[in-house]
Amino acid sequence: MMKKKIKNMALAFLLLFAAVIFTSCSAEEKDQTYDKPYPVPVYDISFFDSGFALSYPCGSYDDNSYDYNLMCLVDYDAKAVIPMCSRPGCGHTGRENCAAVKNYQASLVYGGTFYGFITGEDKQIDSTTRRPTIDIVASNIDGSNERKFASVEGMIFGLSRVPRDSSMFVYQDCAYFPVYVSDMINGIGSAFAEYHFIRLSLKTGEITDLGIIASGYGAFVTTLGATAEKVYFNATYREENIELSDFQSTEEYFEAIENAKVIEKFLCMNLSDGAISQVALPGISFSSRIVANTYFYSDENGFYKYDLLTGETKKLHEHPCNEMYYVTDDRLFYTCDEENISFSHALTDESTSVIPSRTDSVNFRPFKFKDGWCYGNAAGLLDDKGIAVMAYCREDDYFRKENCELTAVSFND
Ligand SMILES: [Zn+2]
Ligand SMILES: [Zn+2]
């Protein structure tokens, strides 16, 4: 009897202990923002479950300190911009030792950890050649406990604007991004560059170079988007080397560059093995975007969505649409230029609704929907300090009211 009771108590304790372990594990690991069946884009604003991180240009023209950036957090509940610095009494002005003043090439919050991509020390290749590197630092979300997490050769050309353009994706505990690798020879940047596509494990810091996307003189690669299988690129480069030193004047040099043959390719790379191939998709252009395993495109008869995993195509609209469509939180936003109407299309239930237009001068583009609120860029809207980092409104109002009331949020100093 006694023995049985002890055994039961031990079992109950074990179950309780297991439950505690289970909940703490799942709470830490389950990041709903990135829990999708496709690579989720990271922009110049990085989203996570309770808010987002952004780099905010600060300083003043008076003391020439305008060139520093503050890493800030916006909490969905607080709806305020808070510097990522926990030092008591810090004015976050850049003239002091402020943890938030950092010029990151890119940043990301994942699983409760902040990852900053910052210029590292050049790697010496030989006596005349150096190669830029990127250090990836990890810290708590308040900027404390910063440590070096990983390092990779090359540069990231800052992440592009939310919610339209992205060159970094998070998928299954890994971040994927292109790096621009170009050497400095005797202190002068080489015109030759290679773009490599990198996988970074956000758990272990392991870096995998999946391969070269494109290389050449004046090479430039734009990421168009990614599916669960492939990432898509537009690449331009010259095969011919044109050096300033070969010309009598800079005008002749620029003329030669302008007249040089530029090769343009649409390429895709397998996420699994890095194999690269040419893309043949209808109407693909530099402005095309791929997100949520889907490619959207227009022809003269309409606007379509093309499922890149199944090959299925569906017509969304009877007119061609503006190429500046975007997807956020499983919703596609697109505009028919012919009718001058904007639409929201839910990718989950495939319902489409008209978005009431604004008749004021504010151009509000939502980038996040959360708990009945909608957050976005609001060009033309200023708060009482004359600046606005972002604006927000009620989700219902956004979909139902013309000129719905927006609240502008600026840096809370
Ligand atoms: Zn500070
Ligand atoms: Zn139309």
Task: Kindly describe this structure.
This protein is mainly beta and 413 residues long. The chain has three domains: 1-30; 31-280, Neuraminidase; 294-409, no CATH class. Helix content is 11%, strand content 45%. The protein contains three helices and 32 strands. It has an eight-stranded antiparallel beta sheet, with no helix packed on it. Strands 2-3-4-5 form a four-stranded antiparallel beta sheet, with no helix packed on it. Strands 6-7-10-11 form a four-stranded antiparallel beta sheet, with no helix packed on it. Strand 17 and strand 18 form a beta hairpin. The termini are far apart. 32% of the residues are buried. The model is unreliable at 13-27 (pLDDT under 50). One zinc ion binds at residues 83, 85, 87, 90, 92, 98-100.
Which strands sit side by side, in order, in the main sheet? 1-12-13-16-17-18-19-20
Main beta sheet strand tally, sense and closure: 8 strands, antiparallel
User: Helical segment tally?
Assistant: 3
Query: How much helicity do the residues have?
Result: 10-25%
CATH first level of the largest domain: Mainly Beta
Total number of beta strands: 32
Shape: globular
Mean pLDDT reading: 89
Structural class estimated from helices and strands = mainly beta
Tally of structural domains: 3
Task: Estimate the strand proportion.
Answer: 35-45%
The low-pLDDT segments are 13-27
Instruction: State the end-to-end CA separation.
Output: 66 Å
Rg, Å, rounded: 24 Å
Chemical compounds bound to the protein: zinc ion
Per CATH, the architecture of the largest domain is 6 Propeller
CATH topology (level 3) name of the largest domain = Neuraminidase
